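Figure 2 data, in text form.
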Amino acid sequence: MLRSLPLKIGIAVVVSAYFFFVFHGTFTLSWIEEWEYFGTGSIWATIIFWEDISAFVGLLFRLAASAIAFTSVILYFVRKTLSEQTIVKILRVVLVGEAIYWIGLLPSGIMPLAYFVDFSGHSPFDVLVRLLTNEVPLLVESVAIPAVLLKLAYELSPKKPLKDAIKWGLTAGTVYVFAFCFTHTGIWISTVRTKGVECLIAYPENLFSFGLTTIGMLALTIFTAHFAKTYIVALTLKDLNLQKIGAIITSLGLFFLCNYLTWILFGRNETWSTWYAWFLGHNMDLWMLSLPLAGLPLILEEVQY
């Protein structure tokens, strides 16, 4: 069991943010208004309808996973401890629920491809850019993430060697960071193609966010992949470099936090764009801006088990 009180508190705050953010997102049903054109023969209306239904079903599983995690944290602080077997069972359930949530995004990657929406009349280059900035990132999120999460849940068992769980935990972490890098970079590229490079030159806050996303997240992805490759042979948690894990967790959280604060502090009508519409309005992972509260204790303290 962890003995670091700051880390325990940090994890509790992150899990709480996870639950309350997902709870709020689940019961914010304004997206139903998008269905008014369903049945009119519009391909876009059909796509949006099935994307919304699939994503909402997946979100219900994330809500259940976050509720279980939140309840477990409360029980831990009330009872002062939870057995290792109980913690493993909880983690496995949460991982499966999270995996199903990401699978719910699969139609968003497949349906536009199936209908070939907006591709006719465009050059091969435009089609390639559209695929790499929209559909392909969604396919990575909805296929790669759940695949590694389900594999991790399978390997996370007291009856199996811990090294296999560590291996797939590191793999899952790398896939997460890569998927976030790929997806958010694609959104920024789409925004620049629509609004022009002037949206970066004229507004330094946009240039900061663009650089943080395209360069910063790429650097974090490379660092995370190198870390995973180095420690993938670890046999126990004590063989891992927890300071570097803390640095990765903190950096990922700061990506979300800094982009969020960029709009809060400097946002105005002139800088509103597709990037902010998606990052602020459709981003179900904004709860990750709380991650530094769990990452910093790993960097600053000698965590004991």
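Caption note: The first helix runs from residue 5 to 26.
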